[in-house]
Every structure is written in C-alpha cells, then in structure tokens.
Amino acid sequence: MTRAQESVPSAAETMFVRDQASRRLGIELLEHAPGSAVLRMTVTPDMVNGHGIAHGGCLFLLADTAFACACNGHGPVTVAAAADIDFVAPAHEGDVLVATARERTTFGRSGIYDVSVLRGAEVVAEFRGRSRTLRPAGKPLPTGQ
Question: Is 134 helix (H, G, I), strand (E, B) or coil?
Fold first, then answer.
C-alpha cells in the first residue's frame, strides 16, 4: 500500500465522520475492517434514564453504530433493514462500554451481524442487525436480487 493509499479514509471511516449523532455522544471508532468494527462509549450523565441507569436508546445507538461500521466496511452503502437488542445488564454513569460487531453471513445484498456490548468482560447487551446494501443510483439489479 502506498502512502497516498494509506491516507484515504475507508468507507466506514467516511460514514462515521459524518455520523453526528454517534460522535456527539462521544462514541469512538477504535478498529474496523470489512465485516467487523470495535467502538467505545463512556456513559455520561446525559445518557442516564429516570431509573439511574443508561438509557436503552443510547446502548442501542452504540451497537447500531458498530453494526453500521462493520457492514459499511465492504464499501457499498449499506443500511439497516431490521435490528433487535437484548439488554443483559444495566450500565451506569461512568461505565466505559465497548461494542464489537462481527459479520455472521451475507447473501445477495443482505447480511446478518452480531454486536456484543461489554463493560470490561461483562456483557451489557447483545444486538443483531440485518443489513441491506443499496444499489447505486441508475443501476438495475441483477435478476433474482
């Protein structure tokens, strides 16, 4: 890889830089490759709900962002078709959470990704996302897709 190629941001990096919602919550992109990503977020006072624990929407956003970085690492624009999350343990203000996304399978323009959100070694949430790669504007889909 040449020096010029090294400085060109990946599709995941470009998407993440434009993701104001995630960046304003302090989410950091630590690692990424096609089909995988690792992100980190510290739970702030603004992320705590009325029960004194991290709001589920904030945990979902962290996991969803890891999912997005993993499935967009391949290059073509890919979006969520569906996703669900299981909250396993509460997170609290000050907790540092790490979301690790891994591609499970792809088929046609679709994919399935799993994301584990951890506080240290403890699982806080498990997320499954289903992706759909968008076709480029003006390009017909091959038969059967």
Answer: coil
pTM of the full structure:
0.88
| Separation of alpha carbons 20 and 40, rounded Å | 15
If you ran DSSP here, which 8-state letter would residue 137 be given? T
Check if the beta carbon of residue 89 is closer than 8 Å to that of residue 117. no
Q: Is the per-residue pLDDT at 5 higher than 60?
A: no
Task: Write phi, then psi, for 79 (nearest 5 degrees).
Answer: -125, 170
Given a cut of 80, is residue 136 above it in pLDDT? no
> Are the C-beta atoms of residues 117 and 97 closer than 8 Å to each other?
yes
Residues contacting 56, CB < 8 A, separation 6+:
49, 85, 87
Q: Which residue, 86, 40, 70, is CA-closest to 133?
A: 70
Greatest alpha-carbon span in the chain = 52
pLDDT score, position 6:
59
Q: Which amino acid is at 80?
A: A
- Contact predicate 83/129, CB 8 Å: yes
- pLDDT digit string (tens) for 40-65? 999 999 999 999 999 999 999 999 99
In 3D space, the residue among 68, 78, 70, 86 whose CA is nearest the CA of residue 127 turns out to be 86
